[in-house]
């Protein structure tokens, strides 16, 4: 659909940026914080790019005032951050660590002081190691009760000032990388467990949302889903079916549960036939249905293209590009369902991620048509190598172009009738990329932090910083 004139962004549109505790805070063992699964995992040789870890990250824990001052200078309307579970409950449950609560109170107060709407993510992947040790973390149903208590604690402590909440960040990614590819903690490869872990995470998500209504009735909550809309490689019906299979098993498998409390039929039957469908208890589906979100949080980076994969086709494990050397990403697939192929119509980043703003519009419309929920774009952005010239200049025109074209796609979607709450760019400052170290940069603000050696963590505004400031000031008119 081509539009002659685009609708303006709503006046209360939340222009912002996002981060996650482990990737920015540092201070990994400060003020009573307990150990997370990531604090342990990064210490295993060979797991992260050049052995990088979040011990210091970009030291947001100590520099949050400076960072928020920069957000205010930019005119940011919202900042999405996550709480480290281990700061609140060092052992995952039991005694509250007051110093952890105090830190987030200071952070939230500082945001509110600058009229920046806080969006709080309850869980962005840093699980208390104590829970992993005690009962396998997400592998056990016990996590549901502990996650519920942790969530309620946050609702009670911060609900007076925080009205927008994200329950789980990218459940589809932390479970896939944790239990299918083994690239994230706990580094397991077990398909059956993967679906079981997901079922527990679904229950935890639902119970947190259900409880939220009791504590913050005037607030809004939803999960953030890593949505990669599926394309068919060709118009061959077998390829179209492969893309349908992928859309169902890699996207609807989560979003249907969030929105409706049910698993999609064909995928469920497929998993049952393979003996890997999750075990479900009496009452689970009732709970899932009670956890309906107020919005769908969407983390969008790229689309994925699929073609048919016969029953005796390849089981592709696929190598992930974590070095920034273009062309090192490999395809993946499931025999009888689909396999991924490179989309020759799209440009790619140095990490082999497709650049596809129109895919965002397609995805937003699919969600709107299927679920009818408002959408918060909780992440979107470009990870690239940045170069500092003359000591403090960073000309990241490629990032501006990426974000500009995605903002245009959002405006087109709004014109199509999509209800949008806001747009959080990943990320505000540069931060630690879980597997790619510090060299893969996303921020509007450069942080002098690298893989090797000691650095001063100095903040420097990139060209995109000044550009996004204009975008916000003009409410999206000057992109
Ligand atoms: C999302 C995560 O998957 O993508 C972020 O929510 C992450 O935590 C971001 O950093 C970018 O991924 P990467 O691998 O480029 O750091």
TrEMBL record:
Coiled coil: none annotated. Signal peptide: none annotated. SUPFAM superfamilies: (Trans)glycosidases. Its EC number is 3.2.1.-. Gene3D superfamilies: Glycosidases (3.20.20.80). Belongs to the glycosyl hydrolase 1 family. This is Glycoside hydrolase family 1 protein. It comes from Oceanobacillus luteolus.
């Amino acid at each position: 659909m081509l539009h002659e004139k685009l609708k303006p962004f709503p006046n209360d549109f939340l222009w912002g940026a996002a981060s996650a505790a482990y990737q920015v805070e540092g201070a990994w063992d400060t003020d009573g914080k307990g150990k997370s699964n990531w604090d342990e995992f990064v210490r295993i040789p060979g797991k992260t790019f050049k052995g990088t870890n979040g011990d210091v990250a970009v030291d947001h824990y100590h520099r949050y005032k400076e960072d928020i001052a920069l957000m205010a200078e930019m005119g940011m309307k919202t900042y999405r951050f996550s709480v480290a579970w281990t700061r609140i409950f060092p052992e995952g449950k039991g005694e509250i660590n007051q110093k952890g609560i105090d830190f987030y109170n200071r952070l939230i107060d500082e945001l509110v002081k600058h009229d920046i709407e806080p969006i709080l993510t309850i869980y962005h992947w840093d699980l208390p190691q104590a829970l992993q040790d005690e009962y396998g973390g997400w592998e056990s149903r016990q996590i549901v009760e502990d996650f519920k208590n942790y969530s309620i604690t946050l609702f009670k402590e911060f609900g007076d000032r925080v009205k927008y909440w994200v329950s789980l960040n990218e459940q589809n990614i932390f479970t896939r990388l944790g239990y299918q590819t083994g690239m994230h903690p706990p580094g397991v490869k077990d398909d059956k467990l993967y679906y079981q872990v997901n079922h527990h995470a679904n229950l935890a998500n639902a119970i947190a949302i259900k409880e939220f209504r009791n504590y913050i009735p005037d607030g809004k909550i939803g999960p953030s889903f890593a949505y990669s809309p599926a394309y068919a490689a060709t118009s061959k019906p077998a390829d179209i079916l492969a893309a349908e299979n992928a859309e169902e098993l890699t996207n609807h498998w989560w979003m249907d549960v969030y929105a409706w409390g049910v698993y999609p039929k064909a995928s469920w039957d497929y998993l049952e036939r393979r003996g890997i469908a999750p075990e479900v208890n009496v009452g689970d589906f009732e709970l899932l249905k009670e956890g309906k979100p107020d919005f769908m949080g969407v983390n969008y980076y790229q689309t994925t293209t699929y073609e048919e994969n016969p029953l005796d086709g390849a089981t592709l494990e696929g190598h992930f590009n974590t070095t920034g050397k273009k062309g090192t990403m490999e395809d993946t697939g499931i025999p009888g369902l689909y396999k991924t192929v490179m989309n020759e119509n799209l440009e790619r980043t140095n990490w082999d991620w497709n650049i596809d703003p129109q895919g965002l519009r397609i995805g937003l419309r699919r969600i709107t048509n299927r679920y009818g929920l408002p959408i918060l774009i909780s992440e979107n952005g470009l990870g690239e190598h940045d170069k500092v010239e003359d000591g403090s200049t960073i000309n990241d025109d490629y990032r501006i172009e990426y974000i500009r074209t995605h903002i245009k796609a959002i405006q087109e979607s709004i014109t199509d009738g999509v209800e949008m709450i806001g747009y959080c760019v990943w990320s505000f400052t540069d931060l630690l990329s879980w597997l790619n170290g510090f060299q893969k940069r996303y921020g509007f603000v450069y942080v002098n932090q690298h893989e090797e050696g000691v650095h001063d963590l100095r903040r420097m505004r990139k060209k995109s910083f000044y550009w996004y400031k204009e975008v916000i000031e003009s409410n999206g008119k000057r992109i």
